Amino acid sequence: QVQLVESGGGSVQPGGSLRLSCAASISITRFYIMGWYRQAPGKQRELVATITGGGNLAYGDPVKGRFTISRDNAKDTVYLQMNSLQSEDTGVYYCHARELYQDPNWGRGTQVTVSS
Predict the structure, then answer these.
(1) pLDDT at 1 (0 to 100)
(2) CB neighbours of 44 closer than 8 A, spacing ≥ 6?
(3) d(CA 51, CA 35)
(4) Which positions of the chain have pLDDT values less than 50?
(5) For a Cys-Cys bond, which of 11, 51, 109, 113 suits 92, CB 3.0-4.6 Å?
């Protein structure tokens, strides 16, 4: 059973920054894609950012230019650097990872709250 453990969430004022981490229980080189999704209260889960094993990046429109996804294969960890945070970024952030031909794996989530 693959485990994904998120950390780095918290409360921050608008305009602030946070860096989320997602540590995997297996080598992340086994995943063909990893990423971050978020869910705000009363809303559906939405894509934040993804990164493939080949290093291709994709971002949801609301976070383009503000968030950056990266990976460290040596640490089996994926990061999400979040800058210029806005109240609309508030939600639970989930790490996602998928091996080829396998069901997707999800972490338990980490809360991000942006409020003055």
Answers:
(1) 85
(2) none
(3) 6
(4) none
(5) 109
